[in-house]
Amino acid sequence: MFSSFAAFAQQAAPSLPLLFDARERLARPDLSSLVRLRFLTSVDFPPFNFTDQNGKLSGFNVDLAREICGELEISDKCQIQAMPFTDLKDALAASQGDAVIAGLAVTPELRRQFLFSRPYLMLPARFVRNLAAPLDGKTAAALSNHPVGVVKGTVHEAMLAAFFPALKAQAFDTKDALLAALKERKVDAAFADALQLSFWVSSLASDKCCALFDGPYLSEQFLGEGMTIMLRQKDSVLTSAIDHALAALSRNGRLQEIYLRYFPYGLY
């Protein structure tokens, strides 16, 4: 699975891997009795949900919510409301909204309380390398004799140890310390969240020192199930409708368009 994703990244970056089988056809439930669909999100998770310079609610999740409503032909019944991230779960439980789209991590406890859509985006782990470091190869094996940085106590430290036990890991207390060490070539590479790394390597802060390398690497055990939409237990029909819309958006390229809008350098 991981090698296939790596091949995909090399051949078609920055394309978004399809999470729905192109041959799969999910039934579209009847929503004619639906009065409204209220999406709840937050404003503190850019580029997924945030307020732009004009104070308008924006982001990947916000655009996706609107596309879902369009695909289900209920745009006139669709609302998107922002609130503090910590209030989202309780607000949904209290029926102050119908669906949470805010990057809330799926946990066994939440699964006992809520329903979840199929994943629409996976956030992989990636290596990033210092371009001044001479590497003999284009895969993780080329890092075997090089120090690889990672943030101490994170899932990425555990994942690096599990996936690449032969690499010489060097732990740092914070992400900033890790990236500073990589830029100064105190380590030749780093292993971390692809989302953060993709923005950093293309930013002024990196000073063009580095580039994403190998991967991407996915693991439900370490990185979770991916980004989903959370709904109330009683709303199984609405959950199925959202799954139908996500599958359709994946097939017709609209999900890819939103992805490229907010991740022009790609995660994969």
Describe what this molecule looks like in 3D.
The structure is a single chain. The chain is α/β, with parallel strands linked by helices. Helix content is 34%, strand content 20%. The protein is elongated. Helix 2 crosses helix 9 and helix 2 runs antiparallel to helix 10. The protein has helices at residues 2-12, 60-71, 88-93, 108-113, 155-163, 175-183, 194-201, 220-223, 236-252, 254-262; strands at residues 37-41, 44-45, 49-51, 57-58, 78-82, 99-100, 114-116, 125-130, 147-151, 168-172, 189-193, 210-217, 230-232. It folds into two domains: 37-122 and 226-262, Periplasmic binding protein-like II (D-Maltodextrin-Binding Protein, domain 2); 125-217, 3-Layer(aba) Sandwich (D-Maltodextrin-Binding Protein, domain 2). Residues 1-13 have low confidence and may be disordered. It contains ten helices and 13 strands.
Question: In the CATH hierarchy, what is the superfamily of the largest domain?
Answer: Periplasmic binding protein-like II
Q: What is the radius of gyration computed over CA atoms, rounded to a whole number of angstroms?
A: 20 Å
Distance between the termini: 14 Å
Level-1 CATH class name of the largest domain: Alpha Beta
Number of strands: 13
Largest sheet: 5 strands, mixed
Q: Give the percentage of residues in beta strands.
A: 15-25%
Q: What is the structural class?
A: alpha/beta
How many domains make up the 3D coordinates?
2
CATH architectural designation of the largest domain: 3-Layer(aba) Sandwich
Give the CATH topology of the largest domain: D-Maltodextrin-Binding Protein, domain 2
Please mark out the parts with pLDDT under 50 across 5 or more consecutive residues, or reply none.
1-13
Give the helix tally.
Answer: 10
Strand line-up across the major sheet: 5-1-6-13-7
Indicate the percent of residues in helices: 25-40%
The dominant shape is elongated
Compressed to H and E, one letter per element, the order equals HEEEEHEHEHEEEHEHEHEHEHH
Domain Solute-binding protein family 3/N-terminal: 36-266
Organism: Rhizobium etli (strain ATCC 51251 / DSM 11541 / JCM 21823 / NBRC 15573 / CFN 42)
Keywords: Signal
Subcellular location: Periplasm
